Amino acid sequence: MAKNSVHILFVHGVGQHSQLSSLLGAYQALRSDVRSTEVPHKFDDLLTKWELVEFNQVGPPPYLKLSTKFPDEPGPRYAYVYEANYADLSGIIRQNQPLDITYLFISFDLAVNLARQRLNKEIPQHAHLAIPAALGKHVQRLAEVFVAATVPVLGLPSLVFRNYTKTWVGAFVRFFEDVATFSMDPQGYPLIAKHFNKTARNIVYSPRFNRTAPPPTGDTFVVVAHSLGTVVAHNYLLAHWFDNGPEVPAGMLTFGSPIGLVCWMWRFLDFPRMEFDAKRAPTGNEYFVWDAAPEPAAVLRKIRWMNVINHLDPIATAFPTQYVNLSMGRLAIENSLEGGEVQHRYIRTGGMFSAGQAHTKYFVSREFSSILTAVTGLMPEEDPNTTKPSTERVAITHWREAGRHLLLYRWLLWALGVAALYGYFWFLVCSTGAEFPYIAMFPYLFPRLTVWTLSFFQKLFFGRPTKRSGATVLKQDLRTLDPSSFPYRVRLFFSPLVSFLFDWILRLSPKLIIGAGRILLSFLPTLILMVLPLWLSTSTPEFLTAIENAIDGGALKFAMLLALFALYTVMFAASEFMTCWRELLRKLELLK
Amino acid sequence: MFTLRKKTQEQPGGPHVVEWQPQADDLLRKSGNYTLDQIHEEFDREFKLNPDLEKLRVDPIADVYVTPVADRRYSVIWKLKGGSDRKVAVVSAVVPVRFAGEAEGVSLKQRVKNAVLLESGGRLKLDF
Predict the structure, then answer these.
(1) For the segment A246-258, what is each residue's pLDDT rounded down to a tens digit?
(2) Strand A50-56 and strand A5-11: pairing?
(3) Which residue from A84, A525, A547, B67 has the highest number of Cβ atoms inside 10 Å of its Cβ?
């Protein structure tokens, strides 16, 4: 007979989320078919046995209270639905101290360079490090895509088509700002963690929560988290799991979770030989701001953890159970989880072209909603002895399909990029009157080379030593002949001269010149790539005449040239991204 | 010229039929005619294809069963009649709950009766 209550806390991911948006978004997805454009119908309701009895907008935190219509049935009597909303807090933190996305990506690229090269040095003594080193190589390529993406790739489209792209570019920047705030900012991280902690405590220590006995008599606390919210929730779990108090959730449902990515990066960047050690002495160059949780002295309360991965969600990882707590041994973790592991579930909300939205489309899936209602106890779970055939998507199908789609995606983007490039060259010939062979297109046909070239200049111009990777470390650990670290070494070599020039410019007029100079420098690699074929295939007077003709051709023609080249760089950067993503899956042996 | 013919209810899978009692439809109509149509269609199709469809026996003596429908959000309560060659399912109620697991101190029969009583506001009492 239903007696206790279940308290469900929804945690949002990165980006702007207005108050109540996560709470109502999740609630509506469970009670109506959010894919439908028709006004919701009772038939769409997944929570048929529940009725809303209270909406408390004050809280804290605000909540919805549901009551079962059939109290004889097993399961909770009441359900409280809450949200932890740290979006405003995170937004204010970054508003008070905006981050430069160019430097953020370059410092990430630099950190990956250092970690990768340190790891490479260890391979002769520790052969098992060859696999993470190979993964690191692809992470490096991904970092270069992001470095190139800031201004050289996305700069032109976001400037020329700013009326159409500002929302998307804003979301892109906010995404990485939020990740940096929670993982790297020593002030931002505790603010968000404490905010989350307070929200959870307000729930479990409220008069609504029956703490007198464990479930099923006492109340149950379940955390449902998305994207970066899963990292926030994971952090919270590790901080409270050892206390065994009511703060420990009985269940965790994570979806679109980057925990696998984040834990791997943490080990890769901050731990020598990737060996996690909670008692390690700090090197002072740590990239992540987190403290490693110590190994628990007592047996932990068992929790149930389910993780859902959507098809072509670039953030979602089916992380190994070890990542639940890096300080604990495998057996101890298995004893702390129901079923001995994190249970991964795979869903598919879209086809091959869904990669752009897969991360945010979980709630449109009725399958996901069914998992959610089962994990939270809002609806009974599927009986394992049922005669109904299972429609569950299996991991092997999921990853193979992802690999196939990524391959197709990669080549499709490449073909679109080549078409845009051809269009650019054709238009260049038309608008400049110059004649040059189309063979000049050849070096432009390789996404890796295009991205590397653009990122090379970004690193050269902006790849200064950072507070986490100082000049001494760079000189000591960065290899000159590594193509990814070469621009940093070149910059280091010329840095005395550059510093002298910089000081001189600073004395002239600081802000205006620096600001204008930065924008020009950022666009320079793209502009060089744009005019290089023309310059190489014509004499200097012809080249100057051609440029003059292009400018005289009018703003429309000039905008067309920019648009075609921008399209080419965007398509090639995306193609390179897909290649790296697929390669990472392949290296992780998920595509077998 | 033209003759209007009544549409027959023949379905593939044999001579098995489903009879929907008016009170079952009245109860289901609370969730809208669309819901009623969807559940009718699903249960009719499943039963006619296979009368041994997924079901829970409500009572060890009476031939009364519950079958989950509509993604297991609703339960059809029905009584089996007829012989082995022609089976008839007489549906007496449909409630928006799935009878899963076991409830402490309450039999499935009682749970089903209570659910119907609650959903109908005390108007429908099952007689088994």
Answers:
(1) 889 999 999 999 9
(2) unpaired
(3) A84
How high does pLDDT run on average in chain A? 86
Q: H helices within A82-224, ranges in order?
A: 87-96, 101-122, 130-148, 155-160, 162-183, 188-204
Q: Is the ipTM of this complex over 0.85?
A: no
Q: Is B97 on the interface with A (CB under 8 A)?
A: yes
> Considering only residues 16 to 55 of chain A, which have any Cβ-Cβ distance to chain B shorter than 8 Å?
41-43, 45-46, 48-49
Tell me which chain A residue has its CA closest to the CA of residue B33.
A43
Q: Can you give the pLDDT at residue B8?
A: 45
Distance from the Cα of A377 to chain B's closest Cα (Å) equals 12
**Taking CA atoms, what residue in B is nearest to A2?**
B103
**What's the mean pLDDT in A183-196?**
92
More confident residue, A375 or B82: A375
Where do the structural domains in chain B lie, given as residue ranges? 17-119
Query: What's the whole-model pTM score?
Result: 0.87
CATH homologous superfamily for the domain B17-119: RelE-like (3.30.2310.20)
How many Å from the N-terminal Cα to the C-terminal Cα in chain B?
Answer: 51
What count of CB pairs under 8 Å joins A to B?
Answer: 67
Cβ-defined contact of A386 to B118 (cutoff 8 Å): no
Residues 365..394 of A with a Cβ closer than 8 Å to B: which?
366, 370, 379-383, 386-388
| Cα–Cα distance measured from residue B128 to residue B122, given in angstroms and rounded to the nearest whole number | 16
For A302, phi then psi, to 5°, come to -70, 135
Dump pLDDT digits (tens) for B70-80. 988 999 999 98
